[in-house]
Structure of Diaminopimelate epimerase:
Amino acid sequence: MSARRDFVKMHGLGNDFVVVDARQEPFAPSPARVRALADRREGIGFDQLIVIEPADDTGDVFMRIYNADGGEVSACGNATRCVAARLFAHGASSPLLIETRAGVLTAWPSGDGRISVDMGPARTDWDAIPLAEPADTLHLDLGVPGVPEVVAVNVGNPHAVAFVPDAEAVALDTLGPRVEHHAMFPERANASFATVLDGETIRLRVWERGAGITRACGTAACAVCVAAVRRGLTGRQVTVHLDGGPLELAWRERDGHVIKTGPAAVSFTGQVDESAIAA
Ligand SMILES: N[C@@H](CCC[C@H](N)C(=O)O)C(=O)O
């Protein structure tokens, strides 16, 4: 008998997700099944598969995150807004506590149709993310002259941020994978190329670990905000312009938490016959 699962296809600024609500019936796809579902020609297609599960602890729900390459990861900023928007639309009360492998995140409607999320604390010390060997500064040998030092930031997942003179000119499809798979990052890394436009505006292009070029990455926007403040390049509140549009970020002084505000949209709903998708 074939198993049919309801899903909703959602996106945050074009960073797209298939969201499966598994609170009543478990859904635990193998990495091969995730890759098959992620295939944009033969599957449904997404950057991340998101599974909503019953809360383990103090939260309202648990959010499990799989990259398109089948790997399970700890954080996804845009999907957190999408899950919150979906649950608010179905009557959940605010604030909503979303458990992830990286901690419990709090989400609320921002009052203008968008969703705000407290993404928790960000770390930018030299050991913020797993490195192959200790390093105070990260000058990656990418085989391309002119790529500056990279800043490591942890927002529940690992980010490598490079501030470049012109993010538009970066060859994301070649530099992104070199950063993601660089020997310094044993757990790989999400790669951000950012240009500071003024003290409150940043242009950002992202190569995501396990998904490649995406139109937006919420945790990368948080990482870039924190890295820019640490470098004295911007104030603590910035608008980050991704390929899919803007996100508002604030790095809160009192507790080091990053607050992110942006849209969340439903594209369509559907049902997948799991046996029809080879794994
Ligand atoms: N799209 C996400 C990040 C998804 C996980 C990331 N690719 C990783 O491997 O850590 C976002 O909006 O933050």
User: Anything to note?
Assistant: The chain is about 15% helix and 40% strand.
